[in-house]
Amino acid sequence: MGEGAPPGMSVMDLLAAVRDADERHRIFAERLEDPLAYEVEHAFHFSAKDNLCTSDFQARAGSRILEGYRPPFDATAVARLRQAGGLLIGKTNMDEFGFGSFSTNSATGVPRNPYDAARSCGGSSGGAAAAASMLEGHLAVGVSTGGSISCPASFCGVVGLTPTYGRVSRWGLIDYGNSLDKIGLLSASSGMIRRYLPAISGPDPLDPTSQVQPPLDMSGQIRSVAVPEEALTGLSGSMRAAFEDAVARLERMGVEVRRGAMPALRFALSAYYILATAEASTNLARYCGMRYGDIEQETDQSFNEFFSRVRSRGLGREAKRRILLGTFCRMVGFRDRYYIKALQVRELIIREYEEQFRSVDAVLTPTMPFVAPRFDEIENMSALEAYQADFLTGPPNLAGLPHISIPCAYIDGLPAGMQLVAPRWEEGRLLSLAERWENGFEYRRPEGRA
Ligand code: GLN
């Protein structure tokens, strides 16, 4: 078994623990069931978010429209983890195509928070964060477009690392927004991420946006951080107090903390939702009932009728909302006002981070403005209120910068994270800081962890 796993645990015991956690928290869209078939040597166990293609499970990306789709190949990140000795134990539940922050927009199952099953795991990689939180020694592969690794990491009390755009190949990932999507890792602490991030990194001839890159350097440190004042507005009172305690602790660790301003952060959320939905609305056009998954047999109608019928049935409400929003934003007549404007805001945000990095090693904010909400609270949120929860996780994703969410507090027993954003290719510094943080801050594990 891999480091961190209980010594001597057999695959049979592991899968029993996985089943038990899954039954209580609905972590997996599909998982390994037959231990005998998989009595193989492995160094560690991992899961893949359901929008990653793997040859042994369906890939539905949380959507009904992909029901039954079994890819004949592995995503590069998954293939590389198998080569490194990983055993893939299942596909984790998520918001449909990544659309959401609470994993409630899922057709395959809504994961329940490890600390309180009446609450959300966050999203869209909610199942991934729950797996990382509930299973000892587990590595969960997640994906972030606008915060889908940081958000659930914060709500589930685990470490979530989103790499620099282009560090990890996107081959085999079911696209949400191609200019924003990044594959990353979640685990209960930073050790497994430090160990296996190098395995999934590096250019890939199958993904032209994967980049020739500097190797991961785990020796770099974060000596100074900037806290932008814009990040402290809109937080719950208890989150603000918890964050200030974490800042004080970082200062005691010798990290210099400067208060600063990043005015463009105020526009990041609007820009993110315009760009992300514009890209999503074109990506989803391929699900027309002819190629993947839920294939429609009756073809006696015109294409438009056929297409509408398949999509009305196969796509959830939030996916439809995003198609409408994204299509509107790139329509002739509105394009300049929305899409092009959002690209300009993206540029501004990139410049503001560059400005910060001239004097500090990282930008520090809370990850989410509140702790994991209850499902009844989520039901009463408007779409806009739900989108607003992403105001701190959107900006680093727009800029393609590496960032990490680290558990930094427990508020009434529920975990909360802080988020650090570093310059391109500086994941190593983020992971070094997480390791130092873990030497002095004790993570509290949920009950029933296996
Ligand atoms: N919550 C954001 C959205 O709904 C981000 C999701 C993601 O990163 N996939 O778009």
Detailed description of the structure:
With 450 residues, this protein is an alpha/beta fold. Helices cover 36% and strands 16% of the residues. The protein is built from 14 helices and 13 strands. It has helices at 11-25, 76-83, 126-134, 150-156, 190-200, 237-252, 265-283, 303-314, 317-329, 336-357, 375-379, 383-388, 394-398, 427-440; strands at residues 28-31, 44-49, 86-92, 112-113, 116-120, 138-144, 159-162, 182-187, 224-228, 256-260, 362-366, 403-411, 414-421. The strands form 2 sheets. It has an 11-stranded mixed beta sheet, sandwiched between helices. Helix 7 (265-283) crosses helix 9 (317-329). The longest helix is centred in the C-terminal third of the chain and has 22 residues, at 336-357. The radius of gyration is 21 Å and the shape is globular. The relative contact order is 0.15. Residues 1-5 have low confidence and may be disordered. The structure holds glutamine. Glutamine (GLN) binds next to loops. The site of glutamine (GLN) has 13 residues, from loops.
Radius of gyration: 21 Å
Work out the strand percent.
15-25%
Which class of secondary structure composition applies to the elements?
Answer: alpha/beta
* Annotation field: number of helices: 14
Series of secondary-structure elements, N-terminal to C-terminal: HEEHEEEHEHEEHEHEHHHHEHHHEEH
Q: Output the strand order for the largest sheet.
A: 1-3-2-6-8-7-12-13-11-9-10
Tell me the distance between the termini: 14 Å
Ligand list? glutamine
Main pleated sheet: 11 strands, mixed
